[in-house]
Amino acid sequence: MAWRGGTTTQDRLLSCLPYLLPFIEVSSFAKLPLLRSLYIPFIPLIQLYYGIPFASLIIFFALFLLVVRNEKVQHFIRFHTLQALLLSIFAYLCGAVLDLIGIVQQGASIPEPLFQSVMFTLIFVAVVGASIYSIVQAVRGLYAEIPFISEAAYSGTRD
Predict the structure, then answer these.
(1) Residue among 28, 44, 33, 12 nearest 127 (CA)
(2) pLDDT 10s digits, 66-123
(3) How far is CA 103 from CA 29, 58, 89, 153, in A?
(4) Phi, then psi, of 122 in degrees rounded to 5
(5) Whole-structure pTM value
(6) What are the backbone angles phi and psi of residue 148, rounded to the nearest 5°?
């Protein structure tokens, strides 16, 4: 869907940048060697992200307050920024739930490495796939439609 006026090339490129956040956030879910190889070009960025205390929190609030809540910024950029933040929150919550399940699962009969490997890969593919889809749509000048997440992003960026 393309509405609320046209988008410039600069708007399209700026709307892609926030999707680095969920991509970095799910880096810990890349347990398979093939998936880890995707992160080789981003190693310095990931080290910087995890090396600075509270970097994720600082980046989150900076993007939310300076971009999403700033009505001077085009709706297209605000929407994609909020959608990237929501994908990042989803990845974080999945990690927290899996940590909790790991604690509960210690007495269960399901082999832990198999369960964790499947869940980590599923979450990784879902978040990276949604991010890539959103980047492609942003480059095309379109709003990415991801169930539930896009609806929340639309409602969070209403003028």
Answers:
(1) 28
(2) 999 999 999 999 999 999 999 999 999 998 998 887 755 555 555 667 777 888 889 9
(3) 18, 29, 21, 33
(4) -60, -45
(5) 0.87
(6) 70, -50
